[in-house]
Specification:
single chain; 494 residues; alpha+beta; Heat Shock Protein 90; 2 domains; 5-stranded mixed β-sheet; two-stranded antiparallel sheet; 10 helices; 68% helix
Length: 494
């Protein structure tokens, strides 16, 4: 098992362990919450027991007084015959029955309804005895005798009512005693549960946080290791970039003189030989030299763009001049490949702000790639169109086109991979994008597999904001005549 696989496996185990600790932590919190709610219910029940309403006992004694007053006032009525006592007896009876009904609603003990029914039966009997006493009274029976009659009948019934009231009192006392016993048991349970629960919760949380602390320490160590590795890689990358820049500078310096010698030899072959094949060979040598010089310049420009951006030598000039130079520059390669170049200028001619040398290299890259990918005896078309802000130059080939999935990274691939090296579009298109965007323009590609490709880039017609106009550096090319073709020292990328 490799070192990377071991690190990956260790990281996976740590992640799983962290997830397990988090799940346990959540479970402990949920359990603690449920335990706390249970204790809360116990405490609430305890408080309810402590606060049992003693009003039931008071109500029972009040009903007892009403029952005794009812019978006493009824007996006094038969002895004295007072209308006030008669009304008072009726009111006591009504108050007693209302008190029973209220007690039944307020204290819904299971036995209370039965006791209320007994009271109803007793009141019915009392009413019968009261009516018998009224009949004796109408027959002018002596008041003392009537009073004794009612007293003898009502006394047993009063005893029954007192017995029922005592039963209600006993029922309520039993309930109070039961609740108080439960309260005492609950209080004792709470007293023991709270310390035990806190001890268990504290232990679990300590284990969880200890485990999570170990994981955090390991993660921090791994993070520190990764940062150290990153710093090492950054240092290596800086060294590699420095080595690359030194290598590029060496190439740019050391190749300049040999390429100049080759170019001079090709010029001699072209100018002093009357043989057409020798002249063509001279042109091809000059084109190859131009390709190498362009590639070196592309690499240097991309390096400058990566570091601090390109410094352009902007001047306002006609697009037709650039097209003429591009035609002269690319004609030898097109002739060798059997490709016809077709340039369509704008009418009327248009001007643009540009660094001519670099724009010619853009044209060399795009037209050169179009020539390479077009089949023999086909043509490459260069069209110029303009709008109010930009001059748009489109290069269309007759090649196989570019796969759609390759287009998004087409202008960002600086180095070409081995698998696609034979397809072109390596450093050249990356530099093309850099140069065009440095001018404030844009570049795009339209391609459909099997039907060719069209690369379109734009140049500003107005001076870019903040740009300083500088006289363009001299463009190195030699001129024999337009008929014999001008040859530019830059050329297309490979």
């Amino acid at each position: 098992m490799t070192k990377n696989n071991l690190k990956s496996k260790s990281s996976s185990i740590e992640k799983k362990a962290l997830v397990v600790f988090l799940v346990i932590f959540v479970a402990v919190l949920v359990g603690a919450w449920g335990y706390a709610m249970k204790l809360r219910q116990t405490v609430v029940a305890n408080n309810a027991a402590v606060n049992v309403d003693p009003g039931a006992l008071i109500e029972v004694e009040r009903m007892r007084n009403l029952a005794e007053a009812q019978i006493s006032n009824s007996r006094s009525f038969f002895l004295l015959g007072s209308k006030v006592l008669y009304d008072k007896s009726k009111q006591d009876k009504q108050n007693l029955m209302e008190a029973l009904s209220s007690f039944q609603k307020k204290y819904p003990l299971p036995q209370i309804p039965e006791i209320v029914r007994r009271f109803d039966a007793i009141q019915t009997q009392l009413q019968e005895f009261f009516e018998q006493g009224m009949e004796f009274r109408e027959k002018q029976t002596e008041s003392k005798i009537v009073g004794q009659f009612y007293q003898s009948k009502a006394s047993p019934l009063l005893k029954q009512m007192n017995d029922n009231l005592d039963e209600m009192k006993n029922l309520h006392n039993v309930e109070i005693n039961q609740v108080q016993a439960e309260s005492r048991a609950a209080a004792l349970g709470v007293e023991s549960q709270i310390p035990e629960g806190m001890a268990v919760l504290t232990g679990l949380l300590a284990v969880i946080f200890l485990g999570m602390s170990v994981l955090v320490v390991k993660v921090l160590r791994e993070r520190s290791r990764q940062l150290a590795e990153r710093d090492r890689l950054v240092a290596e990358a800086k060294n590699a970039v420095q080595a690359r820049d030194e290598f590029i500078s060496a190439i740019n310096h050391d190749f300049k003189e040999p390429l100049e010698h080759l170019n001079q030899i090709a010029e001699i072959l072209t100018n002093f030989s009357e043989s057409s094949p020798i002249q063509d060979s001279g042109e091809l040598v000059k084109t190859a030299v131009a390709e190498i010089e362009t590639l070196i310049k592309d690499i240097c420009d991309q390096k400058m763009a990566d570091q601090a951006g390109l410094t352009l030598r902007l001047d306002q000039m006609g697009i037709d001049d650039v097209l003429d130079d591009a035609r002269v520059m690319m004609q030898p390669l097109a002739k060798q490949k059997g490709i016809r170049l077709q340039f369509e200028s704008a009418n009327p001619p248009v001007l643009a702000f540009m660094d001519k040398e670099r724009v010619l290299r853009v044209m060399a890259n795009l037209v050169g790639n179009a020539i390479k990918f077009s089949p023999k005896n086909s043509k490459v078309v260069v069209k110029v169109r303009s709008d109010q802000q930009f001059v748009n130059i489109a290069i269309t080939d007759s090649g196989p086109g570019i796969p759609e999935n390759k287009i998004p990274g087409l202008f960002t691939q600086f180095w070409q991979s081995r698998k696609t090296a034979d397809q072109g579009a390596g450093i050249g298109l990356a530099v093309v994008k850099t140069i065009v965007e440095a001018h404030g323009g844009t570049i795009r590609v339209d391609s459909h597999g099997g039907s060719g490709s069209t690369f379109t880039f734009s140049l500003p017609k107005r001076r870019p904001a903040g740009a300083e106009l500088k006289k363009a550096a001299p463009i190195r090319y030699t001129t024999k005549s337009r008929a014999q073709s001008d040859v530019y020292t830059d050329g297309p990328t490979v």
